[in-house]
Amino acid sequence: MTFRNEDLPALFHHTDQAAISRQRESVKATRAQLLLLVAAAGAAALPSGPAVGPLHLFGALSTLAYAGVLAVGVRATRRRARPQWQLNRSAAEFIKSLAWRYAVHGAPFGKETEGVEAAYRTRLEAGLAELRKMGWRDPRASGPVPEGGEITGAMQRLRGMDYRVRRETYVRDRLIEQRTWYQRKTEVSRRATRVWSWTIVLLTGLALLFALFGALGSGPGPRLTALLSAAAAAGIAWNEVRRHHPLIEAHTLIEQDLSAMMVVMQTTITEAQWPSSVYETERYVSPQHTDWLARHSS
Higher confidence at residue 229 or residue 57? Predict the structure, then answer.
C-alpha cells in the first residue's frame, strides 16, 4: 500500500498551498526592497544627468527607488505575508503529522485507544485553536474548505492494515520521503551559500580596492565604493533572510536522526513500541524542531 500527500485531508492541501503562496509573497517583497535599495544607491552614485525642469534624472530615479522601498515595506506589513506563511506552514505540517500518526497507529492513536476518531478530531481542533490564537486564519471560517472530512478514506484503509504493512508504508512513504527532502534542501542551501559567499567577497573586495585608491588620491571616487558597499550589504541581508547556513546544519542533523530511526524501525522496534517511535519521528520533522535547531546552530 502507498500513502501520499494526495491522501491527506483537504485542509492540509489548502494550508499547504496558502503557505507556499505567502512564502513567495514574502520572499518577493524582501527581494524587491533589497534590489530597490541597490538601484537607489546606484542612481545616486551617477552624475546628475539631464534635467527636466527642476528635477535631475538620476536624482529623481533614486528618489523613486527609495519611495518604492517604503511602499513595498508598508504593503508587506499590511499583508502580514511572513507571519501567515509561517503559521500556514505550521498548520499544514501539524495536520500532516497528525494524519500520519492516526493512519499508522502512532501515539496517541494506538490500537487500544477508545473512540480514536473522536480523539483525532479533538487533538486536531485543539492544535488549530492554538494557531488561531497566534493569528492563523482558519480557511474553514470563510468557506473554501468544507467542514468535516478530516479523516480520509486512505487514512482509514491504512489504519486497518496489519502492523507489517503499516510499518513498511510509514518507513517508505513518510520517513524515507522526508529524509530525501532534507537531503535535497541541504544540497540546494550549500550551493546557494557558495554562490552568495563568493559574491559578497567579490563585492567587498572591490569596495576595499576602490577605497584604497581613494585614500591614495586616485580611483573612481567614493560614489562607486558606496554602491559596492550597498550591494554587498544587500547580499549579506539576503543570505541572512534565506538562512542557508543554519538550515544546512539543522537539516543535516534531522536527516541523521531520521536515518538512525529508519534502521531502528526496520530492525528492533516491536509492535508495542511502535506508537511511541512514530511519535518521536514526527517530532523530528516538525517545523518547530527545525527552527529550534536552526536558531541554536553554531
Answer: 229
Are 9 and 61 contained in the same domain? yes
The reply to whether the predicted model has a pTM over 0.90 is no
**Which H or E run contains 150?**
none
Q: Which three cell numbers stand for residue 142?
A: 470563510
Asked if 84 contacts 138 with a C-beta cutoff of 8 angstroms, the reply is no
Q: How distant is the alpha carbon of residue 164 from its chain centre? A: 34
Q: CA-based Rg of the chain, rounded to a whole angstrom?
A: 25
pLDDT in tens, 252-271: 999 999 999 999 999 999 99
- The distance in angstroms from the start CA to the end CA of the chain is 41
For CA atoms 26, 29, 32, 38, give the dihedral sign.
negative
**pLDDT per residue as tens digits for the range 143-175:** 666 555 589 999 999 999 999 999 999 999 999
Last residue of a domain, one of 116, 138, 161: 161
261-297 burial, b if ≥16 CB within 10 A, otherwise e? bbeebeeebeeeebbebbbebbebbebebbbebbeee
At 111, list the grid cell: 490500537
CA dist 283 and 108 (Å) reads 13
The maximal CA–CA distance of the chain, rounded, in angstroms, is 83
Residue 43 shares a structural domain with residue 125? yes
Residue 62 is which amino acid? Answer: S
* Distances in whole angstroms, Cα of residue 21 to Cα of each of 67, 90, 217, 274, 294: 25, 14, 51, 36, 23
Structure-block grid coordinates of residue 70: 517604503
Print the domain residue range for 275: 162-298
Phi-psi group of 135: left, alpha or beta (phi > 0 → left; psi -120 to 50 → alpha; rest → beta)? left
Beta bridge mates, 55: 52
How far from chain centre, in Å, is Cα 172?
24
Beta bridge partner(s), residue 56:
51
